[in-house]
Amino acid sequence: MVASYEGELIVSLYVRLRGKYGKIEKIALKVAEALFEKFPGVMGLESVDSWDGANLRIIVSRDDPDLIDRLMERVFEIIDKYGEIGNIVPEIVRFDELMLRGEPKTKVHATLVNKLKEFLRREFDCVIDVVPVDSWDGANLRIIVSRDDPDLIDRLMERVFEIIDEHGEIGNIVPEIVKA
User: Fold this and answer.
1) pTM here?
2) Nearest to residue 34, comparing CAs of 48, 45, 50, 49?
3) Cα 130–136–138 angle (5° rounding)?
Protein backbone atom coordinates (compact mmCIF):
# COMPACT_ATOMS: atom_id res chain seq x y z
CA MET A 1 0.00 0.00 0.00
CA VAL A 2 1.36 3.41 -0.93
CA ALA A 3 -0.11 6.72 0.25
CA SER A 4 0.93 10.32 0.69
CA TYR A 5 0.69 12.48 3.78
CA GLU A 6 1.67 16.14 3.54
CA GLY A 7 3.90 15.36 0.59
CA GLU A 8 5.74 12.49 2.31
CA LEU A 9 5.53 9.01 0.86
CA ILE A 10 4.09 6.44 3.25
CA VAL A 11 4.14 2.73 2.49
CA SER A 12 3.26 -0.42 4.33
CA LEU A 13 6.36 -2.41 5.12
CA TYR A 14 6.92 -4.99 2.43
CA VAL A 15 8.74 -8.31 2.81
CA ARG A 16 8.74 -10.96 0.10
CA LEU A 17 10.69 -14.19 0.45
CA ARG A 18 11.12 -16.70 -2.34
CA GLY A 19 11.63 -20.42 -2.10
CA LYS A 20 11.40 -22.73 0.87
CA TYR A 21 11.75 -21.16 4.29
CA GLY A 22 15.26 -21.92 5.44
CA LYS A 23 18.39 -20.32 6.88
CA ILE A 24 18.70 -17.61 4.22
CA GLU A 25 15.05 -16.57 4.63
CA LYS A 26 15.43 -16.45 8.43
CA ILE A 27 18.44 -14.15 8.04
CA ALA A 28 16.52 -11.99 5.55
CA LEU A 29 13.79 -11.53 8.18
CA LYS A 30 16.43 -10.56 10.76
CA VAL A 31 17.79 -8.00 8.29
CA ALA A 32 14.27 -6.68 7.64
CA GLU A 33 13.54 -6.34 11.34
CA ALA A 34 16.80 -4.48 12.02
CA LEU A 35 16.35 -2.13 9.06
CA PHE A 36 12.68 -1.36 9.65
CA GLU A 37 13.44 -0.47 13.29
CA LYS A 38 16.38 1.84 12.64
CA PHE A 39 15.93 3.26 9.14
CA PRO A 40 12.58 4.90 8.32
CA GLY A 41 13.72 5.27 4.70
CA VAL A 42 13.55 1.48 4.23
CA MET A 43 10.25 0.55 2.64
CA GLY A 44 10.71 -3.10 1.86
CA LEU A 45 12.91 -6.12 1.43
CA GLU A 46 12.62 -9.05 -0.93
CA SER A 47 14.64 -12.03 -2.02
CA VAL A 48 15.36 -11.94 -5.74
CA ASP A 49 17.50 -13.51 -8.43
CA SER A 50 19.02 -10.39 -9.96
CA TRP A 51 21.03 -10.39 -13.18
CA ASP A 52 24.07 -9.14 -11.26
CA GLY A 53 24.04 -11.84 -8.58
CA ALA A 54 22.18 -9.92 -5.89
CA ASN A 55 19.68 -12.05 -4.02
CA LEU A 56 18.44 -9.63 -1.34
CA ARG A 57 16.84 -6.37 -2.50
CA ILE A 58 16.36 -3.55 -0.04
CA ILE A 59 13.81 -0.97 -1.20
CA VAL A 60 14.36 2.58 0.03
CA SER A 61 12.47 5.86 -0.36
CA ARG A 62 15.66 7.83 -1.12
CA ASP A 63 19.25 6.99 -1.99
CA ASP A 64 21.21 9.40 0.19
CA PRO A 65 24.87 8.17 0.17
CA ASP A 66 25.16 8.39 3.98
CA LEU A 67 21.96 6.36 4.38
CA ILE A 68 23.19 3.74 1.91
CA ASP A 69 26.53 3.40 3.72
CA ARG A 70 24.86 2.97 7.11
CA LEU A 71 22.31 0.52 5.67
CA MET A 72 24.91 -1.65 4.01
CA GLU A 73 27.10 -1.62 7.11
CA ARG A 74 24.18 -2.90 9.21
CA VAL A 75 23.16 -5.48 6.59
CA PHE A 76 26.69 -6.90 6.38
CA GLU A 77 26.95 -7.02 10.19
CA ILE A 78 23.88 -9.27 10.29
CA ILE A 79 24.96 -11.40 7.32
CA ASP A 80 28.43 -11.85 8.85
CA LYS A 81 26.97 -12.73 12.26
CA TYR A 82 25.27 -15.74 10.64
CA GLY A 83 28.28 -16.68 8.48
CA GLU A 84 26.56 -15.97 5.17
CA ILE A 85 28.93 -13.42 3.60
CA GLY A 86 29.01 -14.31 -0.09
CA ASN A 87 25.79 -16.33 0.09
CA ILE A 88 23.57 -13.30 0.69
CA VAL A 89 24.33 -10.48 -1.74
CA PRO A 90 22.31 -7.31 -1.03
CA GLU A 91 21.36 -4.54 -3.42
CA ILE A 92 19.60 -1.26 -2.69
CA VAL A 93 16.95 0.11 -5.03
CA ARG A 94 14.90 3.28 -4.75
CA PHE A 95 11.15 2.63 -4.72
CA ASP A 96 10.46 5.01 -7.62
CA GLU A 97 13.15 3.33 -9.75
CA LEU A 98 11.65 -0.06 -9.02
CA MET A 99 8.20 1.17 -10.04
CA LEU A 100 9.57 2.58 -13.31
CA ARG A 101 11.68 -0.46 -14.09
CA GLY A 102 9.05 -2.99 -13.19
CA GLU A 103 9.79 -6.63 -12.64
CA PRO A 104 9.14 -9.51 -14.99
CA LYS A 105 6.09 -11.42 -13.84
CA THR A 106 6.55 -15.05 -12.90
CA LYS A 107 4.37 -17.27 -15.03
CA VAL A 108 2.75 -20.22 -13.34
CA HIS A 109 3.59 -23.50 -15.05
CA ALA A 110 0.52 -25.14 -16.64
CA THR A 111 1.23 -28.48 -14.94
CA LEU A 112 1.05 -26.88 -11.51
CA VAL A 113 -2.12 -24.97 -12.44
CA ASN A 114 -3.78 -28.23 -13.51
CA LYS A 115 -2.61 -30.04 -10.38
CA LEU A 116 -3.94 -27.26 -8.15
CA LYS A 117 -7.24 -27.15 -10.05
CA GLU A 118 -7.72 -30.92 -9.81
CA PHE A 119 -6.75 -31.08 -6.13
CA LEU A 120 -8.79 -28.06 -5.03
CA ARG A 121 -11.92 -29.13 -6.91
CA ARG A 122 -11.67 -32.55 -5.24
CA GLU A 123 -11.20 -31.12 -1.74
CA PHE A 124 -13.41 -28.01 -1.96
CA ASP A 125 -16.79 -28.16 -3.70
CA CYS A 126 -16.85 -24.35 -4.02
CA VAL A 127 -13.82 -24.14 -6.38
CA ILE A 128 -15.00 -23.32 -9.89
CA ASP A 129 -11.67 -22.78 -11.64
CA VAL A 130 -7.96 -22.06 -11.19
CA VAL A 131 -6.35 -19.88 -13.86
CA PRO A 132 -3.04 -18.05 -14.33
CA VAL A 133 -3.42 -14.23 -14.43
CA ASP A 134 -1.28 -11.13 -14.74
CA SER A 135 -2.86 -8.90 -12.09
CA TRP A 136 -2.01 -5.29 -11.26
CA ASP A 137 -1.34 -6.24 -7.63
CA GLY A 138 1.20 -8.98 -8.37
CA ALA A 139 -1.16 -11.95 -8.18
CA ASN A 140 -0.44 -14.53 -10.87
CA LEU A 141 -2.88 -17.31 -9.95
CA ARG A 142 -6.62 -16.74 -9.60
CA ILE A 143 -8.81 -19.22 -7.73
CA ILE A 144 -12.47 -18.68 -8.57
CA VAL A 145 -14.97 -19.83 -5.93
CA SER A 146 -18.76 -19.94 -5.72
CA ARG A 147 -18.91 -18.71 -2.12
CA ASP A 148 -16.50 -16.77 0.03
CA ASP A 149 -17.06 -17.40 3.71
CA PRO A 150 -13.93 -16.51 5.73
CA ASP A 151 -13.36 -19.97 7.27
CA LEU A 152 -13.53 -21.61 3.87
CA ILE A 153 -11.12 -19.07 2.36
CA ASP A 154 -8.65 -19.63 5.23
CA ARG A 155 -8.70 -23.41 4.75
CA LEU A 156 -8.45 -23.05 0.99
CA MET A 157 -5.46 -20.69 1.13
CA GLU A 158 -3.73 -22.93 3.67
CA ARG A 159 -3.98 -25.87 1.25
CA VAL A 160 -2.91 -23.73 -1.72
CA PHE A 161 0.24 -22.60 0.10
CA GLU A 162 1.02 -26.17 1.15
CA ILE A 163 0.96 -27.26 -2.49
CA ILE A 164 2.93 -24.22 -3.65
CA ASP A 165 5.53 -24.91 -0.95
CA GLU A 166 5.78 -28.59 -1.96
CA HIS A 167 6.80 -27.40 -5.41
CA GLY A 168 9.30 -24.84 -4.06
CA GLU A 169 7.31 -21.95 -5.52
CA ILE A 170 6.65 -19.84 -2.41
CA GLY A 171 7.17 -16.23 -3.47
CA ASN A 172 6.92 -17.10 -7.16
CA ILE A 173 3.23 -17.93 -7.13
CA VAL A 174 0.95 -15.29 -5.66
CA PRO A 175 -2.62 -16.60 -5.41
CA GLU A 176 -5.79 -14.58 -5.12
CA ILE A 177 -9.30 -15.79 -4.50
CA VAL A 178 -12.30 -14.21 -6.21
CA LYS A 179 -15.97 -15.02 -5.97
CA ALA A 180 -17.72 -15.73 -9.26
Assistant:
1) 0.53
2) 45
3) 65
